[in-house]
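Hi V.,

You were right to ask for the full record rather than a summary. Here it is.
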Amino acid sequence: MRRSPCFALLGLIAFAMPLHAQNAELSSRIRETMNGFVEHHDIAGSVTLVGDADHILSLEAVGKRNLESSPPMTKDTLFWIASMTKPITGMGIMMLVDEGKLSVDDPVEKHLPEFAGVKMIAAREGDKLTLKAPARPITVHDLLTHTSGVPDSRPPGSPTISKPNPTLAEMVKNISVRPLSFEPGTKWAYSNAGMSTLGRIIEVLSGKSYDGFLNERIFAPLGMTDTSFYPNDEQWSRLAMSYEIKDGKLVFEEDSKARPIAGVRYPSPAGGLYSTAPDLAKLYQMILHKGEIGGRRYLSERSLAEMTRLQTGEIKTGFTENMGYGLGFGFVRKPTGVTEALSPGSFGHGGAWGTQAWIDPVKGRYVVLLIQRTGLPNSDNSPMRRAFQKAALQ
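Predicted structure:
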């Protein structure tokens, strides 16, 4: 996708965030922590960032981005941030809410008619499914909180997409015929398909492509010039390679990432973005400024408050203990274990390859951890995340 040079320049001018006059103690503590994981061959390298509303307090790169050719990890190394894309998709939806184009309480079928009459699994016996109508239609709120029941897997007998490279519209149409796994709003089940559906709603209501909308409304004006679904050649040369542990050794993950090409792979609203730590800092700085920065408002205070408050009540959610969900963001109900360094009410999201970004509104800080490790038993509960957040926030 093309970026407006004017937008990008304005973003770089408005959001150049100086380091504090050397927060040496914080940076040294984080560097020592992450170097420990490199030396023990748990990760090839990392980029970490700690910031507040107006400054980057620490930005550290340790290890290597490619163990085979040995280039060092640099502060502008590009990472696949995977599911950290999801809250950004949520922001796109809430921008349309601010414009009066939808409500989070709208039935999805109001904007995507193919979801009218969606069924739910009442009973399952082998490959045979008994279906019934759910008590109510799924809503935009259900999709944002992963309480819709829209499954990621395709049930037996449901139609497939025959073409090799479907568009987002085609993928979501296929999702619409899958029966729900449970009554909407009653349970939590992580749903990439639900997030894809939200991306399609953005397309329909904005009249723009999903990736084009995010670029125009978020990335370009914030100066996030390294955030994209389709990295260019120069960005690709800065990509951190992905590794896994085999036979006790850190080895290159052969099938880690096929290069995304515009028009060949649709931009995934659930996990398709690549980015860098300095780019993400601009996004989280805007959030700490309550949706407005550099003289431009991105989200209303009300919409941002809705995104970052508990929306799922007592429903058990998330991949770690004592978590809830906002609208697109994970929410820390009670700091426990891996979240112990965060305050209650902190919000953020992780990615499948171990990346993490969390905002602590009580401390007024955000933390970004960028690594590329597969095979972690739970990337949200990784020892790297726990140690980094402790070093950064305690």
